[in-house]
Write a structure and sequence with these properties.
Number of strands: 20
Number of helices: 12
Distance between the termini: 15 Å
Mean pLDDT: 93
Shape: globular
Strand content: 15-25%
Structural class: alpha/beta
Bound molecules: inosinic acid, magnesium ion
Low-confidence stretches: none
Largest sheet: 10 strands, mixed
Strand order of the largest sheet: 9-7-5-2-10-1-11-15-19-20
Helix content: 25-40%
Length: about 450
Amino acid sequence: MANTKPSGQTGYVDIYLGLQWGDEGKGKIVDYFAKDYDIVARFQGGPNAGHTLWYKQQKLILHNLPSGILHDRVKNFIGPGCVVNPVTLLAEIRTAAELLGVFAYEMQFRIFISHNTFIIHPLHQFLDKAIECSKGNNSVGTTGKGIGPAYADIKDRIAFRFGDFELTKDFFSSPAYVAFVESVTKELEFYADEYGYSVPEITNINQVELEFKNAIRELLKCTTFVDTFWLEAKLRDGQNVLAEGAQGTMLDNNFGCYPMVTSSNTVAGTAPVGLGVPMKYFRKTVGIAKWYTTKVGSGEFPSEIKDEEIQALLQEAGQEVGATTGRKRRCGWFDIPQIRYALQINGVDELIITKVDINPLQEVEIVNMYKVNGEGIKTFPFSIDQIEAVSSFGLNMKWSLEEGVPLLETDLRLYLGYINDQVKNLGVTISHISYGPNRDDVIEVNF
Ligand code: IMP
Ligand code: MG
């Protein structure tokens, strides 16, 4: 089980993250559990994320904002491990404020951005698309939000943080900023010459940049920029933090299905750095998975359903369409070796299974083994390219959400029991299930 709290009245951090390829329903789960915490904090990723929340029958899709934003009492922190697009963040804040019935400037009391958090420049988005174009058939199928180039510039030591904009007088004329724009513009010209990449927006860069500058100025009014130890100080005061992951374990830059991954680390070990919080505050890790699997973007995923009819049924019933890009999500069976890999790399304590209300199928299958070098293995291999075949079997189970029949009195209990048996020797049990899109469609379960 989890560690105990550090001594005294200090608070703790619990991590909630996705165990598959993203879109496990993390946003909704975080929105549900946020009531038990003082702060919800994002530690990685950027507007590539798309977290769908329902509030008073209205849908809210979050990209940069943490999923605690709909709770009056909860503070939301965007940590140094994130990359933020000021233009999209501003639009998100305005939409959320409208939904909540407050003025945008009042959001400064709920949204806190670290000085250390990095910025996605509009040119990063163009570069993302240019690089994808240069890769042709081997493209990653990124969200096109500039994530890769933004993280690359951090490592290259030419990126900008919110603190730079706030603290450097006349930042947009500073030599560092001017050099950055020149260098990325040259890079874009290279992709245009070599690969025929062109977007109409390039010709209108001044307009794009103006919007960018205005967004940063506006953000200074409707968020609060905070220093490195803001979150640590809150923990020392006894406040508790929910650290919210994005993207999912199999998209982790090191431990996912490289190279078809995102450009940040998504696993639990990222959280201390991505928040700037020492490890002693961390208490437990909660992993979230759908009862089936989905993926958007290019690249294989082992348990993908080959039967087109079943693929279409699940895709439609689960409304599996990307919240950020509108692309169809490909569906697959629940994959035991993959989930065990994710549980192990994250050190998960509790497992939450989502979307159990969605099951249009007469029989469900589950993947339990891969064939690698002609042999059956039950672990996730170094590279998914090593997988020659996947073994799945039918469980002869079906269930649906019907009035008057408690879900857990259907075959669903057997299905979850099967999964629970497959993960319990990792010290993990299924703690909750989510059975609908609304905040309170969550129940605690016991196996
Ligand atoms: P990027 O993060 O935009 O660079 O995209 C890299 C890969 O991660 C692509 O396959 C995307 O579809 C995928 N991806 C990025 N963010 C998400 C997400 O929030 N949910 C699901 N897939 C994502
Ligand atoms: Mg999503």
